[in-house]
Amino acid sequence: xxxxxxxxxxxxxxxxxxxxxxxxxxxxxxxxxxxxxxxxxxxxxxxxxxxxxxxxxxxxxxxxxxxxxxxxxxxxxxxxxxxxxxxxxxxxxxxxxxxxxxxxxxxxxxxxxxxxxxxxxxxxxxxxxxxxxxxxxxxxxxxxxxxxxxxxxxxxxxxxxxxxxxxxxxxxxxxxxxxxx
Length: 181
Fold this sequence. Notes:
81% of the residues lie in helices and 3% in strands.
């Protein structure tokens, strides 16, 4: 009998490891949001950006199919285990339990790959959204700083004009301004 850890499950296990590593790297506080934005919006990734939705859904469907296949195999080996009498065929029973265990591992791998795929999609879209929000915030900050500078200049001009008016004119006893001749 062939082993249940076939090429497809070996590839899926390495894919799960790669996804877990990416999630850990994306969680590191060392890399800023702007840097992630630059990485995710690089020229290489921009080529895939137009069809990223298709790639995501195709791979998502593939992971769903692998999950269904693993569940089917798991059920098949569970029924096989029930049909074998341990006292009559102990080797066959042990072999059946081993196959069932491997199919459960494959099911767990495919479920983990599916979950991490969704987590990665959420993290990437969240990082890109946060980067755009921070970019918009910095633009708004620059506008506010510019307006504050203009307001300060206007207040300075106003205070220098009022100070010049008090110096040039005199204030009468009734509080009205009179020009000094």
